[in-house]
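Assemble and predict.
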Amino acid sequence: MPKIPASDNTSVRIDSPLNTLRDLSCDASEFDVSFMIPALDVTSFKDAAERVIADIERHPEFSITFFFNTDNVLVAIPLFSPAWEALKTQVGIILNVELKLDAALNFGFVGTALLVSLNPGPRVGDAITFVANFRWDDAVTLS
Amino acid sequence: MVKINGNDMRLFVNGFDLSGSQNEIDLTIAIREVLDRTGFDDVAERVISGNVRRDVLRHGGFFDDDAGDINDLLITRVGTFTIFLVSFGFVAERHSIHASSNLSTEYRRTSGVGDLVGASAVYASSAEFDHLAFLALPKTTFSSFPSLTANVDDGAASVNGANMVVQVFATVGGTVTLELRESSDNFSGDDTLLMSSSALTARDAERIEASGAVKQFRRVNVVGGGGLTSATVALSFQRNP
């Protein structure tokens, strides 16, 4: 069965500002995202085993790692857009986010998310990167 | 698109250049709270920003007790406010982040057999970091005054003011003043002063704000006073969004 490597079909697209879709895939190197519906404990005294029901969707904070680059102008879709330029004014803003494991096969996560923080972490001997941390707002489409 | 080597970072704090002893920086530009607004009707969690920012700077690297390095800077500054400038690259117009009102909360020194002695610091902000800035004047030594930098075209004028952080590392013989000059016609006829630092000397830093309209073109004028023969300075500039 064919596995899917992270490849040029893995994409990160974010509306920044809202309703201005930007493809940040050329700057993105990693994302770590979960789809979660927690279990609620409804065990009562008479139960012989733990009983659970599903909560609503409550996803943990997720992160995307981007390279920092020297470009300081935004380039229109469908070309690449420097991620720092796209995101630096959006902290505290809810944005449309599309993360595709494989855009050609359409596997991924699509939803709206609050940009909670930007964390540049330069180190001597490494290319400079920054992490953008998001919190999903409302239902996420998992495909 | 050009990625940047971490070696090209620059870190200036209160007129001290820590780039030679520090080798890691952690910046956080963040909202302080995420507020839960989920209602009974919602099928998924709903959130909104708490709208208060909490920005943090940490840096770490090697202990250095030379005059002008981390120990000389921080041994007396923990518990006081500092002014920093971090640039992602050391040439003009690289992205930068600067701020004043940063409370130095921790200065740590570490040592172990077989290791170099380490030093790190943490600062908490009582105002937002200016993280939309550019390095308008990289660290440069001037020996004639006044000196003008190259004209910069920001593409358009703006209306929400601007701010800058000035770092003065060394002066000989007098004081230095840094002017941010603006123009509507690339300085072919129009040349006005947008904002200016005070007359500063070595180991000084200052953040200056200007309100209202900011013209499209800008440049920096380095002005000497009181018999100044040499000054080493840097400047970071931000148009407010």
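Helices of chain A lie at 83-87.
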